[in-house]
Design brief:
This protein has about 170 residues and is α+β, with helices and mostly antiparallel strands. It has one domain (about 45-160). The chain contains six helices and seven strands. It has helices at about 25-40, 50-55, 65-70, 75-80, 110-125, 145-160; strands at about 10, 20, 60, 90-95, 95-100, 130-135, 140-145. The strands form three sheets. It has a three-stranded mixed sheet. Helix 1 (about 25-40) packs across helix 6 (about 145-160) and helix 5 (about 110-125) crosses helix 6. The longest helix is centred in the C-terminal third of the chain and has 16 residues, at about 110-125. The protein is globular, with a radius of gyration of 18 Å. The two termini are about 20 Å apart.
Length: about 170
């Protein structure tokens, strides 16, 4: 089926409106479908973001062991121990390479969503968030764009579960 045919608006049986309910999310649906098409994943086939990442030029998955060589064993132990619930994943852009770290202490379903979001940050060429030291506390903080985080989240959700699958 041609890609454009996926983009037709869909109506409920009682014609209350188009799906997704928020028309602004059609862009996310298109991005989700484009990712599936690029990797030949029909809607009825589960998306495997780890396979997609491994087969994407310019993407490298960094596991806990590799990350530990950069941040050190004490910091890695904190990230994957005491602070494991405070983060899900992140991307480190390095010229033409994006290193993606996913928190492997989370359940695989959460890891899949996180990785798909991180892939969309790179696909959509989002500007990385900024890290800075808080002048009052001395703690390292993160400044990010809620708009880009939402866009990556919505695109990931659309890639993993197409809205038409909800219509029955």
């Amino acid at each position: 089926m041609p890609f454009k045919s996926y983009m037709r608006p869909i109506r409920n049986s009682d014609t209350r409106g188009k799906f997704p309910p928020n028309p602004n999310q059609w862009e996310a649906e298109r991005h989700g479908l484009a990712l599936r098409e690029r990797f030949s994943r029909p809607l009825h086939v589960p998306l495997d973001p780890f396979e997609i990442a491994r087969n994407s030029p310019g993407i490298e998955l960094m596991d806990r062991t590799k990350l530990e060589t950069i941040v050190g064993p004490i910091t890695a132990a904190k990230l994957f121990g005491k602070f494991r619930r405070t983060w899900s994943g992140f991307t480190i852009p390095l010229d033409d390479l994006h290193l993606i770290v996913v928190n492997d202490t989370h359940v695989i379903t959460r890891q899949n969503v996180t990785l798909t979001e991180e892939l969309f940050h790179t696909i959509l060429k989002h500007k990385p968030c900024r890290l800075f030291t808080c002048p009052k506390t001395g703690m390292i903080r993160r400044e990010y764009s809620k708009e880009t985080e939402n866009q990556a989240y919505y695109c990931a959700a659309a890639a993993m579960l197409d809205v038409r699958g909800l219509l029955g």
